[in-house]
Specification:
Elements lengths: L12 H13 L5 H14 L5 H10 L6 H18 L5 H13 L6 H19 L6 H9 L4 H24 L5 H10 L6 H12 L7 H4 L2 H11 L5 H17 L1 H4 L3 H11 L5 H15 L4 H5 L3 H11 L4 H6 L56 H16 L4 H12 L4 H13 L5 H4 L3 H11 L5 H13 L1 H5 L7 H12 L4 H18 L7 H14 L2 H18 L6 H17 L7 H15 L4 H31 L14 H17 L4 H5 L3 H8 L5 H22 L3 H10 L6 H25 L10 H16 L5 H17 L1 H4 L3 H12 L6 H16 L2 H4 L2 H9 L6 H18 L1 H8 L4 H11 L2
Helix pairs in contact: 3-4, 3-5, 4-6, 6-8, 7-8, 8-10, 9-10, 10-13, 12-13, 13-16, 16-20, 18-20, 21-22, 22-25, 24-25, 25-28, 27-28, 28-30, 29-30, 29-31, 30-32, 31-32, 32-34, 33-34, 33-36, 34-37, 37-39, 38-39, 38-40, 39-41, 40-41, 41-43, 41-44, 43-46, 44-47, 47-48
Amino acid sequence: MGLQTKMAWQPEDNGLQQILQLLKESQSPDNATQRNVQQKLEELNKYPDFNNYLIFVLTKLKTEDDPTRSLSGLILKNNVRAHFEKFPSEVTTFIKQECLNNIGDPSPLIRATIGILVTTIVAKGELRNWQELLPSLCNSLDSDDYNVCEGAFGALQKICEDNAEDLDNDSTRPLNILIPKFLQFFKHNSPKIRSHAIACVNQFIISRTQALMVHIDSFIENLFFLAADEDTDVRKNVCRALVMLVEVRMDRLIPQINNIVEYMMCRTQDDDDSVALEACEFWLSLAEQPICKEVLGSHIDRLIPVLVKGMKYSEIDIILLKGDVEEDDMVPDKESDIKPRFHKSKSHTQKHTDGDADGELSDDGYDDDDSLSDWNLRKCSAAALDVLANVFRDDILPVLLPILKETLFHNSWEIKESGILVLGAIAEGCMTGMIPHLPELIPYLISCLGDKKALVRSITCWTLSRYAHWVVGQPHEQYLKPLMEELLKRVLDANKRVQEAACSAFATLEEEACTELVPYLGFILETLVFAFNKYQHKNLLILYDAIGTLADSVGHHLNKQEYVNMLMPPLIEKWNVLKDEDKDLFPLLECLSSVATALQSGFLPYCEPVYRRCVSLVEQTLNQNFRHSYGVLQANQTQPDSVDPPDKDFMIVALDLLSGLAEGLEHHIDSLVANSNILKLLYQCMQDPMPEVRQSSFALLGDLTKACFQHVKPCIGEFMPILAQNLNPEFISVCNNATWSIGEISVKMGLSTNNNNNNNLTGNEMQPYITLVIGPLVDIINRPNTPKTLLENTAITIGRLGLVCPPEVAPMLQQFIRQWCSSLRNIRDNEEKDSAFRGVCQMINVNPGGVIQDFIFFCDAVASWSQPKADLKEMFYKILHGFKNQVGEENWTKFSDQFPQPLRERLAVQYGV
């Protein structure tokens, strides 16, 4: 009997015609036809060899046009993504084989489609199960047929982009062969292949892949060889490589650094904008290196003008931005223009740190061109100038000031606009050197707010916001008042971009000016409320932020009947119109949260419906979440994506607004809490797997503890173990809020015990929970690099636990007292600091030995008080004198001689020691 050769799979003509018909239909613009196609595709997926037909059309059916063949491949790619695990093994084998056999199809579109298909199969974990893939592609690179070489490289580039980590971790070490192979092609005669080769190697720079590091010198040498390449893609990839090498192997670039800087300066002015953008990233990367100043010092005077030139709008930017459209405030927004916004969960600080503002602006303002939300050369040049101004400080002003003189007053609006952007970009780094020029520049900028070009008005808003700190520190009549008046006019501008820039700038001014704005509140509110009726959808969301920031900045000064009457009706009207599932609720809820906290009792008339809706939003989300979890278990495995998880942001924002209500209304919230199931819901939220939900839950728990502890108290037994589990500094904000909450609960528990037991603190109700929480808190306070806010919260909570349960906490005194004193010496006098220090005094009375080794730190912390209450001062006095009497006059003198002079004087004056 002769050998039988197994026939390769062949399509039936009828099936093939049906699929071709379907591919033609799917190119139709008609929606109904599209839906019909989707339905047919779902049905065809039930046939095991449907995917064979698709690969056949892609690779074999040369009679069809390229777009139809490519579409067949893309449908197959989607099937691989959704159902690959269910493909029969012979279908999988056939598809893989066809991909490899046709990687060099003469059509670039088909080659690219096969490359995408190969990567999608690899993404399904098939690198391990497709042993012949890499060797086959690697061999194809050596083919004399250009199409085969290019097709294989295209596929390899996609594989390297998507699977760099897997390739690096693969036990067969494929990169030991691939990387030297790629390097050979840097000098290939085809620019497309040169570009593929660099792009492949570039994927392994940031991860410092060993296989690349051993060839790093040869790689860099090859990059230099390609520096002047004619091809834009090659130049772009060379620039990209150099930018990453700055971060990863600066040591290897140093010998050539002057040439590299010259080269990058030249490329930053490349005729091709995409190359110029890649090169411009180099300056951002270099600015982060400690060696930056040394490296750039001799080039900076030539680099600055290059960056300034890049900050001018290009013609294409102006077209995309509709720069010639001056009035568009009546044009409704397209939904696609509105970026998704993310809610920042509430984080509890002890409300006493001396301004932790990092001075960071959102996107540093370089994302002001929303419809161009892509990063572009203008934004990158501005960001580079900003970071370099922070490195060189005022040293760059001799180069910049002449440029500013020329650009700021230029006749061409594009150049004037770029000068105003330059002025904003250097605000942070060169502030000291700019101060002498600001009395002249600020009035000029205020006048530019009235420029006839909308793009000039909008950038001026941003630049002025960068100098808001200086403006607020000057006589108000001179700068703040005119700036505020002009900015508020721009809030009502006829151009939407200007409205947005003015609203954001005004929010920055509010944060800087705080209560300085109180005399102008009526005027400010009039404008903001008027904007409610004027704004289209997108800017309305920014307006909520400006109102929320105003409330945060002026606090209870907002609680005047006339202001409440102006502000609340439009907010409540929006609140009533929005549906529970509308994401516009996020910024509105955030805004109301700030307003409720500021208005305090002024919010009472509005609080019941707001409270009820928030509780309902939390409940709905929890129910949807339960249904989702249950649904996923029940869902037919063929449709794993059919059950959408709920958007937990609704719950987070609602919890934060409830926090705002509790904080603002205090005991007035009592009856609302009593008549709702909020504590039951809170118990569930505190155990949510999502950290942001837990973070907001603990903030609310702390606020409810302060406002109406009688309702929280019965749940403490269930809540405390959950709080203890969340004392995990890996999740800083969650840990911070849990810590703060424990401190608030301990004070209330101590008080309630105290009241019940006639000032006798024994048998404290907090006692059973001390062992749960004190260990983790002591660990946190002793951890290196714990953020300042968490350290302060932890110290205050430890102090408060010691206040209510001194015998339980005092034995550990020695383990935390030094860190405790260091953490709290820098905060202002306030109630929380007061309760914490009382706690430490109680613990020292119980365990004086625990403080002996670190007594100097305790003395320093005591001296940090400006005006302690009389009885607290008395406690300090007793401890200091007790210690002095214990060691004797002579030893005390020796001991206090170690103190810095101001500390010694302060203790002598205040406590007579």
